[in-house]
Amino acid sequence: MAIPPSYSDFSKDINDLFNKDYPLGASKLEVNSTTTNGFKVTVNNVKDNVSGKITSDLKTKYTDRENGFVFTNTWHAGNALTAQLELQDLISTGFKLDLHGAMHPALGTTAAKAGIELKQQNVFARSSVDLLAKNGATVHTDVVVGSEGLLLAGDVAYNTADATIHRYNVAVGYKTPEYSLAFHATKKFTHFTAGYFHNINRGLQVASRATWDQTTANQVGIEVGTKYALDNATFVKAKIDNYGRLGLGYTQQVQPTIKLQLGGSFDTTRLSENVHKIGFAFIVDA
């Protein structure tokens, strides 16, 4: 293992199988356009199938790979602006500086965050601080270390104003090219998740996940899911939990630049009631 995943990607293969490619309860149109000099424009439009409300945003991203420079600017339809500047390998190889700002002119609110990231063999560490927080700056830090497939991770948030730890999480995992295991203890050790992912072959993946939140329920939630490739351009996904909730997803690369996704969530214990969700996404890459 050269560089372990970041803390947010610790269980990415498991989470992607359960959460990705299920466009539920909404109709989405995404259009991406990329120039040869590293300039990308993305337009997102999402319509809620129940309320009919449409949310949109326009994102521009410029990437200079040679100099390790990335600038991203997003303008939301609600007149909110966000901007992010990333400087890769600024001091040494694997060191990144990340500056993030947000502004909502109508509400008169602003936010700013500065962060650093270090990627070295067997270590992935990040730390950031809220620069404009009214209740004192909060320092967010997470570290992942790995060796021979074994992964250990920790995540903590410390508020400088009241000198208290607002958040702490830990994770343990084991990852190989064929399968991975992950265990998370989050929300100050009140929420526990254990997951398993198996890449059986090129066209078939399966996963299972168990979740227990001791503050809300005594029952453990258990999910099983799978992804099956019908051909090189099409795959289907399915998942079900012990509460009887069934999720189905269908993704097809219609053309090299056009992708269609269909998704549905169905409560099999209440099939005659209006509690189900369906949706679709249409993604264009130009």
UniProtKB/TrEMBL annotation:
UniProt keyword terms in alphabetical order: Ion transport, Porin, Transmembrane, Transport
Protein name per its UniProtKB record: Voltage-dependent ion-selective channel
Family: Belongs to the eukaryotic mitochondrial porin family.
GO CC terms of this entry: mitochondrial outer membrane; pore complex
Organism of provenance: Rhizoclosmatium globosum
Key word Ion transport present: yes
Annotated Gene3D superfamilies: Porin
InterPro entries associated with the record: Porin_dom_sf, Porin_Euk, Porin_Euk/Tom40
Domain of life: Eukaryota
Gene Ontology molecular function, alphabetical: porin activity; voltage-gated monoatomic anion channel activity
Pfam families hit by this protein: Porin_3
